[in-house]
Design goal:
Radius of gyration: 27 Å
Structural class: alpha+beta
Largest sheet: 5 strands, antiparallel
Number of helices: 2
Order of helices and strands: HEEEEEHEE
Distance between the termini: 42 Å
Strand content: over 45%
Length: about 170
């Protein structure tokens, strides 16, 4: 089985390199696994606790003098493990000899589906947490990225079936 796979791989690389060496327009596609790293998320706010919010708590229940002055900014952190998903791309380009230019779209989606308690490190945020009617936790469900690039390449033919390249892009 491994010999048959190797034979087909080498044969298809020859077809691929021949198609890649033709001048004119081309389409390139890709599909693979996207592995997203762990995230440390830092949040900040400067809003009122829910007890002081007159829309959520119009009757001012359980409110003392803590709602008399504007709240100070607060911050907190959350940590989430990594995620995995799918990555796919499409490029439309044009080739002139050894030069290529292309426009590329790349889409990544990774599922974390994770919840994390809020880590509070300062007294202001702890006080503000006491002003909440319900305590929140943080979560990340899905991470989605849409990327658009413009790329330019110069191909170096190292042999009949081997091409290396140098490139630059912006996006």
């Amino acid at each position: 089985m491994p010999q048959k796979f190797l034979l087909w791989t080498v044969a298809l690389l020859g077809v691929y390199s021949h198609a890649l060496s033709q001048d004119g327009p081309y389409i390139r596609m890709g599909l693979g696994i996207a592995v997203a790293p762990a995230m440390d998320v830092r949040g900040t706010d400067n809003d009122w606790g829910t007890k002081c919010d007159r829309i959520i708590n119009p009757d001012g229940l359980e409110v003392t003098d803590e709602c008399d002055s504007v709240p100070a900014p607060t911050e907190w952190e959350n940590a989430f493990g990594g995620g995995s998903g799918i990555g796919s791309g499409l490029a439309l380009g044009y080739r002139w000899g050894a030069f290529r230019i292309e426009g590329e779209y790349f889409h990544r989606s990774a599922t974390y589906d994770e919840r994390s308690d809020i880590a509070i490190f300062d007294a202001i945020t702890l006080d503000k947490q006491d002003q909440e009617i319900e305590l929140a936790i943080a979560g990340v469900d899905n991470l989605l990225a849409h990327n658009l690039f413009a790329n330019a390449y110069y191909d170096f033919a190292l042999g009949p079936a081997l091409v290396s390249y140098a490139g630059a892009g912006a996006g």
